[in-house]
Amino acid sequence: MTAPRKPRRRTVTAPAGTAIGYVRVSSEEQAVSGLGLEAQRAAIRAQADALGVTVVGWESDEAVSGTVAPVDRPGLTAALDDMAEGKAERLIVAKLDRLGRSTLDVLNLDALARSEGWGLVLCDVPGLDTATPEGRMLLTQLASFAQFERDRIAQRTREALAVKKAQGVRLGRPPVLPREVVARIVSEREQGRTLRQIAEGLTADGIRTARGRDRWGTSGVQAVLNGQDAAATRKESGA
User: Fold this and answer.
1) pLDDT over threshold 60, residue 1
2) CATH topology of domain 18-148
């Protein structure tokens, strides 16, 4: 687990009525089109107008997943630097999930804001004020629900993939190893050879790995044995 960012002591007072806007999109396609980023900027501008504040700077993370820890995102790190340096009073984000999908990450950011003396504004939660106990409680609940939904999606995905795998549907990348190589690995394993012995034999015979490497390792052999091609080979042989 990545450690949360440590608070910094502000040496200057932020100009009154100022804000930094932070935007994020997950995919390269969204980053290239700019549509997701612009929609977030529009929401932030509207919220700033409603609060009577001016957005004095923008920071962004493009093609960065919300599962990436805040301290590992260059754009959010820059935004937090801006706040710590007293460049603005508030950090405005279009939606909670633009900040993060982990309850702990969001609460750590809220704690950081309180320690450094700046405000966090979410455009999708009108009136949220993290400077109040009620606002912090609401943020905690929202962050918990966001992670709950993320966990539910992950569980449904795992279950769907398991059903497809049981039905024989190929998952992941297409096969790149010849079937005879897969059959050899399966056969040698069934004959009692160790993973290392199989790997050394493949390397000695000049057989390339699935990624085109000259040398096999035990993990590569195990990956083949765990794959769908190996399962199909065993089924065909009646093993």
Assistant:
1) no
2) Rossmann fold (3.40.50)
